[in-house]
């Protein structure tokens, strides 16, 4: 049982099979397509390539550590979500997973909408030309400045998260002589993570307005009375890294129940429901994520069935996948600096990054895979812990991994599935510089977020 297993980790520690790490994989050089992006392969020299470029060349040109993002894979995943949900639904990419102006342009081109949750994300989206009406603005404590900017820009929806915010947004919109389209985020008493969901008592969190005790119904009552806002729907987000659709089933049932109450009390049928994000990806070969078309089919069927039972017109559905689109599209490339075998324990492999470029292992006990990618090796597998260069013993990138016994300084390691919540949660701890994000496509690589420099650090330090 893990010390700090977090719901946002890829799996609960208590569902790990016994002796999970006892058997090394049969072939350490194999690249499981589940965890690597679409164009990743090994060339005849055993070097990993992405988008047709090998990692030795990438490391030479862009340095390490660095995130390499497979643009074709990103676009294909975005398109798969768009196609799976079709014209009668909307897909909002959750920018918190990873956002840059290039990503915004790809989303725009692929016909996706965008969920932002801060003024900074909103500014990034607008500066890259995402049409404001395709932006949804989230957050449990948006400032009045952020709200004003969003309303003025004409965002398609603001997702209201509290009683105060209902009034705040209505007043600001009215002051600006506008009517803002809004959804109300409710907590339906379901928390889903990975292979499980819990259907009680999860109103105990900072997000949303609880359905329990009639609070959500009261929020709707108040929202419907205010001129500055137009209530278009109800929003629910139940968790992260979810594989099991049953949590969504319960959530949809409860959201539709509220729509029915609203119809009965106010004679209004709200036209939209948003079921949030949280769909899981494979971080290791043990994870079995579902395909967008299966998810779309399951969610659409649940909502349609529930609405038929409640004699409601089926609302337009929207979803907000972040991790499921960008997560599998990138890997982090590191150079090995030291290899330290500890007798009878394990071998510590230190790389040139760490918790500043991937906090998820330290924060959530998240699991990752790792491979030697600058060459193949037939050496015996050795149980390793891949750690970073930070002054902290919890600075772990991959807690338990088998790597070839001839691993040596100068070798390149890659950690797949780091596209989501790695660069976006990166820090400058120990004044380590945040790595670049390099998009690779069709034999070409280009920096989309450059590496931080010492000058960048010193620019903020006004002396
Ligand atoms: N919509 C809402 C309202 C959300 O709060 C989130 C994530 C998403 C969509 C996107 O969820 P996704 O599809 O990416 O799982 N930092 C954590 C995850 C926190 C997610 C917060 N909200 C991690 O590294 O796992």
TrEMBL record:
Pathway: Amino-acid biosynthesis; L-lysine biosynthesis via DAP pathway; L-lysine from DL-2,6-diaminopimelate: step 1/1
Entries under Gene3D superfamilies matching the protein: Alanine racemase, Lyase, Ornithine Decarboxylase, Chain A, domain 1
Cofactor requirements of the protein: pyridoxal 5'-phosphate
Keywords per UniProt: Amino-acid biosynthesis, Decarboxylase, Lyase, Lysine biosynthesis, Pyridoxal phosphate
Binding sites annotated in the UniProt record for pyridoxal 5'-phosphate: 278, 320-323, 421
Pfam family, one: Orn_Arg_deC_N
Annotated positions binding substrate: 323, 360, 364, 392, 421
Residues annotated as catalytic: 391
Enzyme Commission number: 4.1.1.20
Major enzyme class: lyase
Start and end residues of each Orn/DAP/Arg decarboxylase 2 C-terminal domain: 332-419
GO MF: diaminopimelate decarboxylase activity; pyridoxal phosphate binding
Protein family per UniProt: Belongs to the Orn/Lys/Arg decarboxylase class-II family. LysA subfamily.
Protein name: Diaminopimelate decarboxylase
Organism for this UniProt entry: Streptomyces toyocaensis
